[in-house]
Predict the structure.
Amino acid sequence: MTDPQLVLTERVRLALADAFGAEFADADPLIRPSQFADFQANVAMSLARRLPDRPKPRDVAQAIADRLADFPGTVEVSGPGFLNITLSDAWIAEQAGQMFGDPRAGVPTITPAATVVIDYSAPNAAKEMHVGHLRTTIVGDALARVHEHLGNRVVRQNHLGDWGTPFGMLIEHLLDIGEPAAVAQLEAGEGTEFYQAARQKFETDETFKRRARERVTTLQSGDPDTLRLWHVFMNATIRYFNKIYSMLGVTLTDADIAGESMYNDMLAKTCADLEASGVAVLSEGALCVFPPGFTGSDDKPLPLIIRKSDGGYGYATTDLAAIRYRVHDLKADRILYVVGNDQALHFQMVFAAARMAGWLPDSVSPEHIQIGMMLGKDGRRFKTRSGESVKLTDLLDEAIDRARAAIADRGYDDATREEIARAVGMGAVKYADLSVSHDSEYVFDFDRMLALTGNTGPYMQYAQARIRSIFRRGGVDPASVTGPIVLGEPAERALALQLLGFPAVVERVGEAAEPHRLCAFLFDTATAFTTFFETCPVVKDGVPADTRASRLALCALTLRVLETGLHLLGVPAPDRM
Ligand code: ARG
């Protein structure tokens, strides 16, 4: 454990328990960064109110301070009862040295490993993959990377929208225009146009409508020819999704596809079991679960419909089958659903119904990681100027084009320049998605995400590329640096103290499913590094050998933290910019 805040929490707890009794061993000592010291502990004030003899908060603080006499640093009581805590340089240097000696930069491996099922991306094949799915894809992938790094078993589940009544009409349209033309259109990402053309005929052409309806029936009955056509449609669509995944450097593969269609065979049993156990009841011909606590605007219990009155199954039925599969077959400890926040009610009801059915033991936590809506610069749902939804490959290409135009001309050859443009363009889009909290709305703005200053992808990429260039210019291989780290200048101390927080941030990102915390940490790290680099020469002539060795180690450790952090976010880290 290197994180000073956690170390202090632990130490102050022990002091609390020793001074006031074992029941305080779990109390939160309220350690916070301080203006007057490295940290302050605010616990004395609230604790004084809870103690039977109502001591003065300052006396409580003093009792804690007395028990921290051997603490590596100074502890002072101030004001009404704050504890101001300053760590010793030697302690910080020692912790930083340990972190430097560890290829994982102090990030622990969680034991026992948990199985974390992550449901993310999940575009719908009957429509174009849209910009909202960009965000569920990017955030979900970062969470998968973080959990894998922490040593958890990650099972990615791409819950594609690949089934339902529109497929009757889509298959008939595919037959009308011919397979090769249909495949070409779908692979090019024109799923929306394809869908709209089918829809148009469905609404205006009675024979087409009849054919589409019959096709739904033959598809559902498992007719081999129809299934083949469905595969033709799906494979072409998936090739387009894969093009986007590979542009983005997202870790999803075909093996992670677990679309709605995968659950078809389980739906009848899902309904039958729920009905048999009395969890589901018939209401106006439909089979419904009424989880307690959910009411509509009329105060009537809200139904989760699992079989419509015409016998059809829906989105909720599939999700109930999926939850059962994930708990029972995949052995999930945690299930993360990285999905738009407009589906919050759906997931609450599905989770509640699964608990009623006994399919979701208390030990398993399903979590809806709510994704906020993507807005255009006009503050409305993101669209092109002409109002259609935006084709994602075009959007990503534009990011790369803009990055190509923005990066400084340093005389790189074409291939290098192209590589940097791709890294910066994709890095900018991804980082912009990750750096704001996942549930807040977010304005898609190329100028802002590509800016070289502020908490942006390009800034973070530049920060790590600059450290690499320090090593290149000094003719030093970061891997050959040994330290030891010795702290003198305030900027060295501040940088080292900052770096010590890395392991705890990674753990916290995994626990809370909040990648923006890692972005904020990396940004603070890059800022601390900039101050350090401006005030502390590293490879200049005249820097004493031991100072140089220590500063090189600080550079190498910063580089490792930034590189690891960006890798966990899925943001590429180019060698030079
Ligand atoms: N395909 C759905 C959509 O685009 C998202 C699916 C999310 N996952 C789930 N298990 N329901 O809205």
Summary: DSSP finds 21 helices and 13 strands in the chain. The CA atoms of residues 169 and 316 lie 22 Å apart. The longest strand covers residues 334-340. Residues 119, 122, 124, 159, 161, 319, 322, 337, 339 surround arginine (CB under 6 Å).
